[in-house]
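Sanity check record (used in CI):
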Amino acid sequence: MTFSFITYFTSTLLADAYRAPDPVHGKRNYTYMDVVRATLGGKKTQLCGIAQHVNLVGVTIGYTITTSISIVAVKKIKLFSL
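Expected output for Amino acid transporter, transmembrane domain-containing protein:
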């Protein structure tokens, strides 16, 4: 329940930021980084970009480890002869 509320709240914020600073005549922001640039500007945009890339690398490493563990488990129960 908590995570669904957080997802709803952040989605609402992002939808409100689609046109910034004016909701009718403001510039369209097509990406999350465009929203950050329009709202915060400058160095904070670079910091946000770095944080996004670090998160992407971390998630990729996590999926790689999980996949390798799963493949070993499948191999151990001999469902497939690899």
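Helices lie at 2-16, 32-39, 42-76. If this sentence no longer matches the regenerated tokens, the check is flagged for review.
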